[in-house]
Specification:
Layout: E1 6-11, H1 18-31, E2 36-40, H2 47-52, E3 57-58, E4 62-66, E5 69-73, H3 76-82, E6 86-89, H4 105-114, E7 118-124, H5 132-139, H6 149-153, E8 157-161, H7 165-173, H8 180-188, H9 193-221, E9 233-238, H10 244-256, E10 262-269, H11 279-291, E11 295-300, H12 304-314, E12 319-323, H13 338-345, E13 351-355, H14 376-399, H15 404-422, H16 424-442, H17 454-501, H18 508-519, E14 523-528, E15 537-543, E16 556-559, E17 564-569, H19 578-640, H20 648-680, E18 688-690, H21 692-695, E19 708-711, E20 719-721, H22 723-740, E21 747-754, E22 757-763, H23 796-806, E23 810-815, E24 821-828
Parallel strand pairs: 1-7, 1-8, 2-3, 2-6, 6-7, 9-10, 9-12, 10-11, 12-13, 19-21
Antiparallel strand pairs: 4-5, 14-15, 14-17, 16-17, 18-20, 21-22, 22-24, 23-24
Domain Histidine kinase: 620-831
Catalytic activity: ATP + protein L-histidine = ADP + protein N-phospho-L-histidine
Organism: Streptomyces ambofaciens
Length: 854
């Protein structure tokens, strides 16, 4: 009997439906007549899962006693004796109770498979051994039960059971996964939306990798050479030069743009093992590509382009990244180069990116004003043709007599060739040398510089004239080509200035860097001064060693108005380049003015916000402060009146009213002062390591006794916070929750540790807040719903969030499962991140007297 087949249902978290899917598959197979039994399935008291067990044969479990408790485990011997065709084994990563035949359940499954029994099992992504550290960093929980990745990889079929985090949390809230008493804790910790989303991504990516392996196997077995672009796979061609680091980083950025992108760096060496690459540089590049999540490959091949394309097609790549060639211009005589060859032969399925780097370009320099317009290699070949060609042709014609007319045409053709290659001067040299050789060797009388026949003189004159004409045409064409290239470069630069700069998409430093690259300079700086005698100051710079004292220190300076100049160092620019430089200088001034206008607008916006705050403060003072003052004055006036004899009970009520009014005034003024300090940025926390259970209970003094319940474990790590600010924040949150909770429903204050942070959750069962209003309730002077004017000025939550952020934490609002609102205060655990110790801001009111409002 052969080995059995393994089918695994993989999920991102408990409750997504793995066991349900496994049992449904068992019923389908049972209907087809397959001998299928339940070896071990745990329904966890989930009614829908339990119903599916009906009608399936279940092998009795083995009972084991450990430390005085009785446990049930998979009875491996009973299943082997039963010998079904298919066995259902739930929770593949489960650790067996000591005394079992195997330590792990996946080892039991291996024995079933070896016996020829097909197995259907389940596992969660967090139980894979290789993902233990990743899952712990996400959830803060270290998984103790794991299964080796190779066990799952060897499965004949892996099926992902997927569910969105929102749907899974709804199932949890409805009690379909855990018991009701565990729902709140689960939703607040492991089953948070962020955790579930990250685990879901891990599961999807892991399954995608397995699918990719199956695809490669299929392509290999069926000899499929055509590229199937199922995912972005980018091959980086390396030469061992320093530009390889740039190519690897560029490929990594391309891979990040697509989900599941992969980078494969490949170095092609000759088959004899000889290489001109630096082993040290290749080692550095290997480390870099592996740090970025890619792989490094070393292949052999005499034909580099062919080897590179074969490798790319073999791994089903979709893109190839190559660097611009480092070869000299004259070396292109020996071939078009690797980049051009790969681009030509890549076909429609492979995209080829040619990336520039520092080894081939020191900037986007404009075409040089003077010098050789045809290129150095063409001029060299032109002079060789113009001087050496007539000599070689003379030696040839001395052995083969073709007649004077044919000789003149051959020399003319040689002169035309020299003109086409090298331009005017090689053609003139060719015409001069050719005419002398024609006169000496082929024009009667020979061996003399004379011409006997006037017709031969005319032929030589026409020869020289044609040569000069052709050379002039070539020179004019070269000049026009040079001018066109320069105008094209200038138009691109001006288009850049008219686009990004005028739309405000370019910063001053970016523009100066573009100036430096365009003209191939070492540095660029924009200098300005207030008047003619004031010292120069640097408004922006780019490059190394820019001139910052005065424009005269630079190699090139371009004035911009009377008190501004663009200064560059590196070389002296020709006069024709200064026109484009002037455009850059003018736009640099525009960018600087725009930046300053934006800064002024930000200051004006801050002033306007301050005015809004002050206006709101005046409105609050006009009503919310006047009401308790009026009550206090009325009570005091009544007590001082001699017209009425107040009883002790009446006097007590009046005094109680005075005390409540004073408390309200103190609370309102405290929140107003807190918000004022937050707005002006004067809150400087004193960060220290403290225990949460030392501070949070003190924040409950301002609420009625029994209205709030604490659930703070003593095992929580210490947090790095300002004790005073934390107490103030928690007091506002708790009082706010108590205010909106229904009568008889207590507010829960719970804390838990998650990785390098601690979360404090304030849970109420009030009316809740819609999603679109959750951010607005943290704005100053916002009171949600129909809160009465006397409920406060709407600063409590704004102050709480401001203090939380000042301590390096966060404060957000979430829905409470079953109705209500949960405030989540996230704090840094001690040792995870330090901040400098600064003087603390002392609270100006006691925590028992603060009022919070939505």
């Amino acid at each position: 009997m052969g080995r059995g087949k393994l089918r695994i249902y993989l999920g991102a978290a408990p409750g997504v439906g793995k066991t349900y899917a496994m049992l449904s598959e068992a019923h389908r197979r049972l209907e087809r007549g397959t001998d299928c039994v339940v070896a071990f399935v745990e329904h966890h008291d989930r009614s829908r899962t339990e119903v599916l067990l009906h009608g399936l044969e279940q092998v009795p479990r083995r009972r084991l006693t450990h430390r005085g408790a009785v446990f049930t485990e998979l009875d491996l011997d009973a299943v082997l004796a039963r010998a079904p065709r298919v066995a259902l084994v739930d929770e593949l990563a489960h650790t067996n109770v000591p005394g079992s035949r195997n330590a792990k359940r996946w080892q039991d499954v291996e024995e079933l498979l070896a016996a020829g029994i097909d197995v259907i099992s389940t596992v969660n992504i967090q139980h894979l051994e290789s993902l233990g550290d990743v899952v712990e960093s996400i959830t803060g929980v270290r998984q103790q039960e794991t299964v080796p990745d190779e066990v799952v990889r060897r499965a004949d079929q892996i099926e992902l059971v997927d569910m969105s985090p929102q749907a899974l949390r709804r199932r949890m809230a409805h009690g379909n996964i855990y018991q009701p008493d565990k729902v709140d804790a689960a939703l607040s910790n492991y089953f948070r939306p962020g955790n579930l989303t990250a685990l879901r991504e891990l599961a999807l990516l892991w399954v995608a990798d397995r699918v990719d392996e199956y695809l490669q196997q299929y392509r290999s077995e069926h000899r499929v050479s055509r590229i199937w672009g199922s995912r972005e796979r980018i091959v980086v061609g390396l030469t061992g030069g320093p530009e390889g680091r740039t190519l690897i980083r560029r490929a990594a950025r391309l891979a990040e743009k697509g989900a599941g992108g992969e980078v494969l760096a490949v170095y092609v060496a000759r088959s004899d093992g000889l290489t001109s690459a630096s082993p040290k540089e290749l080692a550095v590049q290997r480390t870099l590509v592996e740090d970025l999540g890619g792989t490094f490959h070393h292949v052999l091949g005499e034909d580099v382009p062919a080897a590179l394309l074969d490798f790319a097609r073999g791994v089903n790549a979709t893109q190839i990244v190559l660097g611009s060639s480092r070869r000299k211009a004259w070396q292109y005589v020996f071939g078009p180069g690797v980049g051009a060859t790969v681009a030509r032969e890549s076909g429609p399925d492979l995209d080829v990116h040619i990336v520039t780097h520092e080894e081939v370009a020191k900037g986007r320099g404009l075409p040089v004003a003077g010098g050789a317009r045809l290129g150095r290699s063409r001029i060299v070949w032109g002079w060789f043709t113009g001087l050496g060609g007539p000599v070689l042709l003379t030696l040839l014609l001395n052995s083969v007599h073709l007649g004077l007319a044919n000789d003149v045409l051959l020399y003319l053709a040689l002169t035309v060739a020299a003109a086409l290659l090298g331009g005017l001067y090689p053609a003139l040299a060719s015409a001069a040398v050719g005419s002398l050789l024609l006169n000496w060797f082929f024009t009667p009388p020979v061996d003399r510089i004379t011409i006997a026949d006037p017709r031969n003189m005319l032929a030589l004159a026409i020869f020289v004239g044609v040569a000069l004409s052709v050379a002039s045409v070539v020179d004019v064409a070269a000049r026009r080509t040079h001018q066109a290239a320069r105008l094209r470069a200038e138009s691109e630069i001006l288009s850049f200035l008219a686009g990004d700069v005028l739309r405000g998409e370019t910063s001053l430093e970016t523009l100066l860097e573009r100036v430096r690259e365009t003209f191939g300079m070492e540095s660029a700086a924009l200098l300005e001064r207030a008047d003619d005698v004031a010292p120069w100051t640097c408004a922006g710079r780019a490059g190394t060693g820019p001139p910052v004292r005065r424009p005269e220190d630079a190699d090139v300076d371009m004035p911009v108005g009377d008190h501004m100049a663009l200064a560059l160092t590196g070389r002296v620019l020709p006069a024709e380049d200064r026109r484009v430089l002037a455009a850059f200088a003018a736009q640099a001034a525009v960018v600087l003015d725009r930046r300053r206008l934006r800064e002024e607008a930000d200051r004006a916006r801050a002033l306007a916000e301050g005015n809004r705050i002050r206006t709101a403060l005046l409105a609050a003072v006009s009503h919310d402060l006047r009401t308790p003052l009026a009550g206090i004055k009325a009570a005091v006036t009544s007590l001082r009146s001699d017209d009425v004899a107040w009883s002790e009970e009446d006097q007590g009520e009046l005094l109680e009213g005075i005390e409540e009014g004073a408390d309200r005034l103190d609370n309102l003024v405290g929140n107003l002062l807190d918000m004022s300090r937050l707005q002006t940025g004067t809150v400087t926390p004193l960060i220290r390591e403290i225990d949460v259970d030392e501070v949070v209970p003190m924040a409950l003094g301002g609420v009625p006794e029994g209205s709030a319940e604490l659930d703070i474990p003593e095992t929580l790590p210490m947090v790095a916070v300002d004790a005073g600010l934390l107490e103030r924040s928690m007091a506002n949150l708790v009082e706010n929750a108590v205010k909106y909770s229904p009568a008889g429903r207590t507010v829960l204050v719970a804390a838990s540790a998650l990785a390098d942070r601690v979360e404090v959750r304030v849970v109420d069962r009030g009316p809740g807040v819609p999603d679109d209003a959750k951010d607005r309730i943290f704005e100053p002077f916002q009171r949600y719903g129909d809160a009465p004017r006397g409920a406060g000025v709407g600063l409590g939550l704004a102050v709480a969030r401001g203090f939380a952020e000042a301590m390096g934490g966060t404060l957000n609002a979430e829905d409470t499962p079953g109705g209500g609102l949960t405030m989540v205060l996230t704090l840094r655990a001690a040792g995870s991140s330090r901040t400098a110790t600064a003087p603390s801001v002392a609270p100006h009111a006691t925590t028992t007297e603060r009022q919070a409002a939505r």
